[in-house]
Write a structure and sequence with these properties.
alpha/beta; 7 helices; eight-stranded mixed sheet
Length: 370
């Protein structure tokens, strides 16, 4: 191993999924910086939330579930979600003593000696018996390619670097994408822009009524089936439809959410369709989603022919030492919590033997108060 530092578990990523995994590792008696280490490339606590645009206040966040063992109470709905959740994650790390290492970039995970994995990072190499990969998607924004894109004279940006609506005052803006971020951007920008246009590949599906437990289970099952087949995961939100809130209803009534089909090419001054229709634009905002940030796992050859990593529960089918949390069906705050617990349960069996882990499971995972 050379100068590699040996630990039992490396956790890559300190968003909701990574912190959940670290919490449950502590519950089993493993100590941070002795038995496991949490590596996070972000400059401060907060996971992907710290990069969200200022106008996304906490009151606009849907379905934020608390981290295991510590509730988020008394949050100001008018405060930016990046600040609220960033402060909450920071307090969580301090309270539990998780000792997250940051900023640390992980460049590759490779096969090592003696059944260990080598995690190569900007602070050195770790030789680990198991890996919790919780790198999410924020670092891999998806930019579609269309003819003429390089010749566009205006500005192109992605949700990942969306600055809020103020910068679009007086401009003509094309928003591309059929998800919740696209509708949020449109409703904000329309209040200050000279004009907005909404373009999607497929007609949007709006969901009227509550998002109940049965609907949630069905959505998760659809995403889970994809990762079981080794296909790239879809987000849970992508199969649930867009919630038909009062704000969305108003935006539809006023024409802000009048959808256009996907254009065929980009011109120097806007976008154009095959039927001759054109729209002039100063900005194209790509609200086209993200892909799983798993390139550092490439040396292990975990991908299936379909392009994804085949996962059973949280375990990579091709390598039982590797668990992906916040991936596919667990890419939600409540899903990440559950996945962290499930991953640690299986890692316990891997580290200590199946019989011991099964016998201690009830005690190890009994509810705790932090």
């Amino acid at each position: 191993m050379g100068a590699a530092r040996e630990v039992d578990v490396v956790v890559i990523g300190a968003g909701q999924a990574g912190l959940s995994g670290a919490y449950h590792l502590r519950r089993t008696g493993l100590e941070p910086d002795r038995d496991f280490v949490v590596l996070d490339h972000a400059p401060r606590p907060g996971g992907a939330w710290q990069f969200r645009w200022p106008s996304l206040t906490y009151g606009k966040v849907h379905g934020m579930h608390a981290l295991p063992g510590m509730e988020l109470a008394g949050a100001d709905d008018a405060r930016p979600s990046s600040e609220v959740i960033g402060d909450y994650f920071a307090e969580y790390e301090r309270t539990l003593g998780l000792r997250v290492h940051r900023p640390v970039e992980v460049s590759a995970v490779r096969e090592g000696d003696g059944g260990r994995l080598l995690v190569e990072s900007s602070e050195g190499t770790y030789a680990t018996r198991a890996l919790i990969n919780a790198t999410g998607t924020w670092d891999r924004p998806f930019w579609p390619r269309y003819p003429g894109q390089e010749g566009f004279r205006g500005r192109q940006l992605h949700t990942a670097n969306y600055p809020g609506p103020a910068e679009f005052a007086g401009q003509r803006v094309v928003v591309v994408g059929g998800g919740a971020s696209a509708t949020q951007h449109l409703m904000e920008i329309a209040e200050v822009a000279a004009g907005t246009y909404w373009v999607t590949r497929r007609p949007p599906v709006f969901r009227d009524g509550p998002f109940d437990e049965d609907l949630g289970r069905a959505a998760v099952a659809m995403v889970e089936e994809r990762v079981r087949r080794g296909l790239p995961p879809q987000s849970v939100v992508s199969v649930t439809g867009l919630p038909l809130t009062d704000a969305v209803r108003r935006a539809r009534e006023t024409g802000v959410l009048d959808r256009l089909p996907m254009f065929d090419r980009i011109t120097p001054n806007g976008v154009a369709w095959g039927d001759g229709r054109t729209v002039e634009a100063d900005v194209i905002l790509w609200a086209t989603g993200f892909r799983a940030a798993i390139d550092h796992l490439a040396p292990l050859k975990l991908r299936e022919p379909g392009g994804g990593i085949r996962v059973e529960g949280t375990r990579a089918v091709r390598d039982a030492r590797i668990h992906l949390v916040g991936y596919g069906p667990s890419a939600s705050t409540i899903g990440a919590n559950r996945a962290g617990r499930a991953a640690v349960r299986e890692i316990g069996r891997l580290l200590e033997g199946a019989d011991t882990a099964a016998g201690d499971a009830d005690e190890v995972f009994a509810p705790a108060v932090v």
